[in-house]
């Protein structure tokens, strides 16, 4: 396995690229001015956003690779592994990079809500592809942070930089909403495969072996990150992925409850519930009647 190197500071991130550090907690780099870097996989302790130009080298993220056919925004959070497939040649970075240490936003509004930006947990084919106009907005935000870095540090510097980064991330929320719309046909395909996955799950022995299907299990089977999958289902159906799964569970349960050859407890275990009372509680919550009452009335 390739050795994974840690990126522990903004200064280290800059030094790897042969660029100057203007602030210990945040940096904006024009990657065309960076020195070539040696391919390696890295564990980030920083938040890093790459604005990648078209046709650049394929960056590995986790076990997968991003698609760089268009200009793309990539989001990396502390604790995530990224990097390049190892080979002997050095690579010339391009595009732009924004990197900041968690300490920069600690105690701020952004620090309290940074986990709400789900795209820091998105996977390979879920990267944000942006238009020319969107790219201009991204660069304007980067340049505002760069201006503050080149300005003498004063009591306003941190507030202005953090608020600009928060503005940039809020724009990215809008851009992702647009991407969900423009990829509507792909999203419909995911929902069809999601429905087929659940249908197949409940006619197999998986409920007995694995229990009830989880959001993370379904996302993994569909080759999506749990965060992106959840956003997609919510935007397309108005339900959370968990609510969608529960609706399918109740649909299947209604059919099974009408089979009087099995007790309610047997049906509960067969569907993947650890305890029959959990099955009864969920059924009554959604149907308005207990499984036994539903069976008798039907």
TrEMBL record:
Key words of the record: DNA-binding, Transcription, Transcription regulation
Q: Which InterPro entries match?
A: Homeodomain-like_sf, HTH_AraC, Tscrpt_reg_AraC-type_HTH
Gene3D superfamilies assigned: Homeodomain-like (1.10.10.60)
GO MF term set? DNA-binding transcription factor activity; sequence-specific DNA binding
Question: Where is each HTH araC/xylS-type domain found?
Answer: 219-297
User: Which SUPFAM superfamilies does the entry link to?
Assistant: Homeodomain-like
Know the name of this protein?
Answer: AraC family transcriptional regulator
Which organism does this record belong to? Answer: Spirosoma validum
